[in-house]
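Entry:
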Amino acid sequence: MSAPTEVMPAQVVPHAWHEDVLALLIGSLLASLGLYVLESGGAVTGGTPGLGLVLSHATSWPFAAVYVVVNIPFVLLGIVQRGWRFTVRSAIAVGLLAGFSLVHPHLMPLEDVSLVYGAIVGNVLVGVAIVVLFRHGSSLGGFGVLALLCQDKLGWRAGYVQLACDAVVLLLSIAVVPPVTLLVSAAGAVLLNFVLALNHRPGRYFGA
């Protein structure tokens, strides 16, 4: 018996503006929650969110402020490479994530979060959030912009590009986390990028 073929839509149906607004809110909220769980468990991750966590650990500066500053160069790259629409949406997502990250500790204090649990749940939440934002013409800034650019221009899967960038961030985290934490965090980053590679690839999603 032959495998069932995938039915292609007759035409691409664009997302309505209110769907994009909800996606920005939901994606940013999920990402901020995932990073909060990661941080509460003592884990780190890749991408500019991970870089923000590493620098926050190293300097004791608030994550929200570090994350916004780290993303400024990538916002400029987004303007040049992907246009104003994508860049503005990504900048809004970055701002929302930073804002949500300030709220979570006050409304949902977390204590005694397992390192392994934090790494798994946190990275899954961030991965799902990135997929939501990608599919609505946005990102969390940073390496997501670079990953989408490589996918669009070179045909490389966004998840694999992000994985390479994440490896660099995790290597930098050696300076602020113990070796065991680094190993668990690395496994969590692989899980995050598996979520991306599984759910966001060329030719699979036809929303716009």
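Residues 17-199 form one domain.
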